[in-house]
Write a structure and sequence with these properties.
about 160 residues; mainly alpha; two-stranded antiparallel ribbon; 6 helices; 2 strands
Length: about 160
Amino acid sequence: MSDLSSGEAAEPPESAPPADTAVDDIAAVNALRSAVMRLGRRLKHQRVDESLSPTEMSVLGTLARCGSATPGELARKEHVQPPSMTRIVALLEAKGLVRLEPHPDDRRQKIVTQTEQAEAMLEESRRKRNAWLSGLAEGLDEEEWAKLRAAAPVLEKLAHL
């Protein structure tokens, strides 16, 4: 918190855009947020295994992208508390989607690794979601599709900042 008595300006709240943000930029951010949220919700319905929660799917996706990890590392990457991740890992292990292995350097720790069953399920999920998105993209004209292809790497970068 700023000390206003020292002459410093108060920082704007995190939810407010910076004061010098152009009106067009604010409108673009608003449209992007809305579109990403709507597409995300619709994509969640394109699941292969309805028995997995979105959080469980997210953990499996993180393991696929980042490789094996401790439950603590997964908790940080998924922005959840360690006890929550311990429960999620236990559920995934019970479903045969991850296995726990001894940590090579710390016997108190375990390493979470996805199984071949999880890899196959994630691949099928990606295939289904990609097919769904491809179907949507067929409704775009060539210029819109070119813009979307060009924006994809930028959206990917934004997702990982």
